[in-house]
Amino acid sequence: MCNRTRQQSWLVSTHRSGRPIQNDTRISTRSERKNFLRAPANIARIINACLRIHDTQCFEISVQTTRIRWSHINMSAAAVNQAAETRADLEKKRNGEKHANSLFKDIVTMRWLVYPSSAAKIALIFVLGYMMFEYALPFSVNPFQPFLTLSYRIPESEVVLRLAQNPIYGPAPSYSLDNPVTTALRDFFLSTHAKLFPNEPKLLRYGKGWLDVCFMGFYIIVFSFLRQVITGHIFKPLAARWNLKTENKCVRFAEQGYALTYWGVMSIFGLYVMAFQDSWWYNLDHLWYQYPHWQMRPELKLYYLLQASYWLQQAFVMLLGLERPRKDYYELVAHHLVTLWLIGWSYFINLSMIGTTVFVCMDIPDTWLAVRLLTCLLDFQTRHYLTNKT
Q1: What are the residues facing 296 on neighbouring strands?
Q2: CB neighbourhood size of 273 (10 A)
Q3: I want to staple 111 with a disulfide (CB 3.0 to 4.6 A). Which of 106, 182, 188, 207 is the partner?
């Protein structure tokens, strides 16, 4: 007990006669207080105690002030470090509550569409399951195969029989041989394919079926992961580095960066797929000569299902309200639904060659449109930089 506490307890526990009493006895009534103050010895003791308390308080205040002055720098550094640690712990706790609570919860609430960590975990489950059944377990049927590879491969004997039953009619395809640029581009794609797949059968064809939905489901997960990684970890840091200060501009910049990445890749892939078709470079008459096109080459089927997976992922994010809606929300929802309707029906009624042509003629302009929007977002910052530099 410090001096101040002992002196205050002495004042409270002093008898009216000047003798100390028990600590649990208190002077509560007014008459007892008057009798206590009438004794001269008690008054003298009160004055001395007050002086001692005053000196003690002054000494303690001076000591505390000196300690604060001497330890100010150390305390400020420690406070900064403690505040940073506390902020980091709170951020980890928030992220843990959002992301690491439960993978099952993210699956049920469809939050994996916007959380790349959850999407990566789900995709990894399918990949590990496929590898386990393919290389470890002696089963003839791999239940994970429809999710990772194309289904409904047609035997070569059936392909030959179908070609014999359906005679070729119409003129031979020209492949735009009169255009040296498109001819060189087609030759490049064909030679690249021959180098990448030297042992591919010439009559490798695929059909359609409900297992294609499994393939699209897996790549919806893949596109969810890629979208969040590209927007959140590539283009948003670039937007902050290039001084796009408002949140709306940063989000718009990241979205257009992802669109540029996707449409640029799919434009090249679409031209690669079109190089194997008789309708190369918009020779539109050959879209109908051999219709219906029941059998598809593997790259055509892969291209079509990837396009469907991309637009399904975009539609799910918007329809489920997993992101903040934009001003043109209803227009975008209508656009995505119409796009999915066209993709689905062209796939089911064997208009895949027409669909490929439409995809290519839309993806190439969309690529340059994304480039233009990115430059528009950076235009103000560029002009501001040049003005300050000059």
Answers
A1: 206
A2: 24
A3: 106
Same domain, 142 and 276: yes
Radius of gyration of the chain (CA): 39
Q: Which of 313, 318, 312 is nearest to 332 (CA)?
A: 318
* Domain identity same for 133 and 250: yes
Query: Residues 63, 118: one domain?
Result: no
Residue 227 belongs to some domain of the structure: yes
Same domain (yes/no): 66, 177: no
Kindly tell me the sign of the dihedral angle through the C-alpha atoms of 143, 146, 151, 152. Answer: positive
Question: What pLDDT, in 10s, does the model give residues 156-171?
Answer: 988 888 877 777 777 8
How wide is the angle at C-alpha 372 spanned by C-alphas 370 and 375, nearest 5°?
110
| Nearest-angstrom CA–CA distance, 241 and 378 | 11
Listed residues 45, 70, 95: the one ending a domain? 70
In terms of Cα–Cα distance, which of 329, 325, 339, 297 is closest to 201? 297
Q: Which of 6-15, 130-139, 325-334 has the lowest mean pLDDT?
A: 6-15
Structure tokens at 240: 């902050």
What's the whole-number mean pLDDT along residues 75-83? 50
Is residue 121 in some structural domain? yes
| Residue-range definition of the domain harbouring residue 195 | 103-389
246: DSSP letter: S
Evaluate whether residue 142 is within a structural domain.
yes
Q: Which residues are paired to 153 by β-bridges?
A: 206
Is the domain of 49 the same as that of 162?
A: no
Judge whether 42 and 7 are in contact, CB under 8 Å. Answer: no
Cis before 180 (ω within 30): no
244 half-sphere exposure, CB direction, 13 A CA radius: 20
- Report the largest interatomic distance among the alpha carbons of the chain, rounded to a whole angstrom: 132
How many separate domains does the chain show? Answer: 2
- Contacts for 284 with CB less than 8 Å, ≥ 6 apart: 357
Worst-scoring range by mean pLDDT, 11-25, 73-87, 183-197?
A: 11-25
Query: How much is the average pLDDT of 64-82?
Result: 47
Domain contains 86: no
**Contact status, residue 7 vs residue 55, Cβ threshold 8 Å:** no
Say if residues 253 and 374 touch (Cβ distance below 8 Å).
yes
Q: Are residues 53 and 142 in the same domain?
A: no
pLDDT in tens, 266-322: 999 999 999 999 889 888 888 888 888 888 999 999 999 999 999 999 999 888 887
